[in-house]
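pipeline stage [seq->struct] | target=Branched-chain amino acid transporter | organism=[Clostridium] innocuum 2959 | residues=100
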Amino acid sequence: MTEYLPYILVMAVVTYLIRMLPLTFFQKEIKSPFIKSFLFYVPYAVLGAMTFPAIFTATGHTLASCAGCFVGLVLAYQGKGLLSVAVASCITAYLAACIF
């Protein structure tokens, strides 16, 4: 157990530094529209980068995953709510997996 302690401490320090350094360096209000828009969209980009690859590996069937993704994209483009898009995508992927 003690052999993992240095690794845990390094991870804790790195995590703390990542959260503390921006607060230390950026104490004034950010006025640049480019940086503001960049920081505004970062969470959405990270969420998309983590979620999108998982869509195609979740079912084990690539065609079923593509069908669910297609239905989700169409419904989202039509302005449907998050819950209805997610439910319709899951049902489509399940039914497609049963067929294929």
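stage status: PASS
auto-comment: The first helix runs from residue 5 to 25. The chain is about 80% helix and 0% strand.
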